[in-house]
Amino acid sequence: MIGVLGLQGDFLEHIQLLKEIDNVKPVIIKRSEDMSNVDALIIPGGESTTIGDLIFAKNLDKKIIEFAREGRPVLGTCAGAILLAKKVSDKIVGETGQKTLALMNITVVRNIFGRQRESFVTDVDTKIGRLKVAFIRAPGIIDAQPPAEIIGYIDHPATGRIGVLAVENNLVAATFHPEITGDKTLYQYIISLIKK
Ligand code: GLN
């Protein structure tokens, strides 16, 4: 069973896409109790400060951290990637002291491509294949320290070459939205990380 954190953001789009994949049962996670039978977790895009506040208010942080440390796959997309990162800043306002789950050894910069109107759809070349995905007020990954590794980059006029996909063992941070374009590559990858 694959859980999608359903506190805020586009969790329903992920659920919809997961339903199209054979042998996958998606479930919306709203409380710690919902995670009991989950093999992999997706933290969706949305507003990272709001999703983060709700995670901590509902004590879901401890549950997600324990889940990740047990080696089960966690995929964070866009706001979800921000919440997985140990270090976060904002291109526009600088350091914000934003609290995250701090599970991955990556540094993420919010709003790195500019404001909402700078959103775009593009192809991304990654170690797991070529993906067609949407960047919506997206962050970029500017650094990864082992065991984390950046495995996907794009070239953008605002940033030059910039990291957009990183992995650290069972954890995956994608600064884009695969659920908008319906590209299933990342879902297949996260499913392949589930220990049989
Ligand atoms: N910029 C948003 C944030 O910081 C993320 C946007 C998104 O998830 N599409 O939360």
Commentary on this structure:
This protein is α/β, with parallel strands linked by helices and about 200 residues long. The chain has helices spanning about 10-20, 50-55, 60-70, 80-85, 180, 185-190; strands spanning about 1-5, 25-30, 40-45, 75, 85-90, 105-110, 120-125, 130-135, 140-145, 150-155, 160-170, 170-175. It has six helices and twelve strands. Strand 1 (about 1-5), helix 1 and strand 2 form a beta-alpha-beta unit. The longest helix has 10 residues, at about 50-55. The radius of gyration is 15 Å and the shape is globular. The two termini are about 10 Å apart. The mean pLDDT is about 95.
Q: Classify the fold: give the CATH topology.
A: Rossmann fold
Placed side by side, the strands forming the largest sheet appear as 2-1-3-4-12-11-10-7-8
CATH architecture term = 3-Layer(aba) Sandwich
Sheet with most strands: 9 strands, mixed
Q: How many structurally independent domains?
A: 1
Kindly report how far apart the N and C termini lie.
12 Å
Radius of gyration: 15 Å
Q: How helix-rich are the residues, as a percent range?
A: 10-25%
Q: Could you report the average pLDDT, rounded to the nearest whole number? A: 96
- Give the amount of beta strand, in percent: 35-45%
- Identify the CATH class: Alpha Beta
**Which word captures the global form?**
globular
Instruction: Spell out which ligands are present.
Output: glutamine
**What is the assigned CATH homologous superfamily?**
Class I glutamine amidotransferase (GATase) domain
Count of helical regions? 6
